[in-house]
Amino acid sequence: MTNAVKTQASRGLKPNYPMQRFSVAPMLDWTDRHCRYFHRLLSDHTLLFTEMVTTGAIIHGKADYLAYHEQEHPVALQLGGSDPADLATCAKLAAERGYDEINLNVGCPSDRVQNGRFGACLMAEPELVAQCVAAMREVTDVPITVKTRIGIDEQDSYEFLTDFVGIVSEKSGCDMFTVHARKAWLKGLSPKENREIPPLDYPRVYQLKKDFPRLTLAINGGVKSLEGAEQHLAHLDGVMVGRQAYQSPFMLAEVDQRLFGKTTPRITRRQAVEAMFPYIEQQLTHGAQLNHISRHMLGLFQNMPGARQWRRYISENAHKPGAGIEVLTTAMGHIPEQWLDA
Q1: Strands, E, within 213-305: which ranges?
Q2: Minimal CA–CA distance to 243: which of 180, 152, 292, 184?
Q3: Which one of 95, 170, 192, 256 is most buried, by most CB atoms within 10 A?
Q4: Is the bond leading into 74 cis (omega within 30 degrees of zero)?
């Protein structure tokens, strides 16, 4: 078993698929600990990522940026940074906290991230990326992985991509990459536009796997369904889904059966909501607000009868002082009974 490929079997699960076979992407302001707890109720096997956390926040911040719930496993921490020593410090702390994977962000194109000299701009510095990964691997046995793009600005040839992957993998020992199948424009496009305007190039990522067969490669970008995920898995080791999994989270309820061979029945939407109640009540007693948790559940009934009323009732009431699980039970009353258990 390679360093980057923890398997479901190694966690006492079967069949023997790599942990990265299906994952939910790190998404700023979205994949917080409440979101991940909810997603875990829908799928046992999906690898869940934190939002990107900078090394500076972990080392110098006053908050606990490594906090997560034990039920979130398997869970990966995504780090933003470019100083090998700082990244090693954070990797060691994350390993001590029990994270299943530590991922280096070499894909985010935002100006703020570039100003910190990390994210997609690091594709132009593969030697530095290799130093960063090597420094992290020296202090922990937890898989250290890289999430990247297929190119940046005018540096978007296939040779540029293979040079980057080749240098990083050979000089650091990194054997797991997640590739967003779009290049990033570092100037002129917003992060949102960088997720939509540069064209997707799936065949380029497929070719990368052919040229680096020993590496575990997952693809990200534009995946809208499990059917699409299955098509990618015919060529690659893993698929990472972003906004589709957040906006229509119930797609995760079929992942275990369709992609990991689980034979027991999937959870229903009603069961998913009710399974959140103990967690919500616990979090409320510790000072959390309902809307900070329920906002991640708004898409649960996407494209179903009553979905708009479900979203509206929660949005109008979850922020009120004293709001509790009765907001969700009332909101479920807007969904026809037959669809609650669908």
Answers
A1: 216-220, 238-241
A2: 180
A3: 256
A4: yes
Min mean pLDDT across 14-28, 67-81, 98-112, 297-311 is at 14-28
pLDDT digits (tens, 9 = 90+) for 268-326: 999 999 999 999 999 999 999 999 999 999 999 999 999 999 999 999 999 999 999 99
Evaluate whether 23 touches 49 at the Cβ level (below 8 Å): yes
> What sign results for the dihedral spanned by CA atoms 187, 192, 194, 198?
negative
**18 exposure class (CB count in 10 Å sphere: 0-12, 13-18, 19+):** buried
Q: Rounded to an integer, what distance in angstroms lies between the CA atom of residue 202 and that of residue 205? A: 5
- DSSP lists the bridge partners of residue 152 as 155, 184
Residue 205's CB: how many other CB atoms inside 10 A?
A: 24
User: Which stretches of the chain are assigned E, i.e. beta strand?
Assistant: 22-24, 47-54, 75-80, 101-106, 144-149, 176-180, 216-220, 238-241
Question: Is residue 160 within 8 Å of residue 124, measured between CB atoms?
Answer: no
Neighbour tally for 167: CB within 10 Å: 15
| Residues 52 and 27 sit within 8 Å (Cβ to Cβ) | no
Residues flagged as binding site: 26-28, 78, 147, 180, 220-222, 242-243
Q: How confident is the model at residue 227 (pLDDT cuts 50, 70, 90)?
A: very high
Question: Does 3 have pLDDT greater than 50?
Answer: no
Question: The whole model's pTM is what?
Answer: 0.93
Q: Which residues are annotated as a binding site for FMN?
A: 26-28, 78, 147, 180, 220-222, 242-243
Q: Which residues are catalytic?
A: 108
Compute the Cα dihedral for 193, 197, 202, 205 and give only its sign: negative
Cβ contacts of 57 within 8 Å, gap of 6 or more: 63, 65
**Long-range contacts, stretch 17-20, CB < 8 angstroms, 24+ apart:** 17/45, 17/259, 17/260, 17/261, 18/216, 18/237, 18/238, 19/47, 19/74, 19/100, 19/101, 20/47, 20/101, 20/145, 20/176, 20/178, 20/216, 20/218, 20/237, 20/238, 20/240
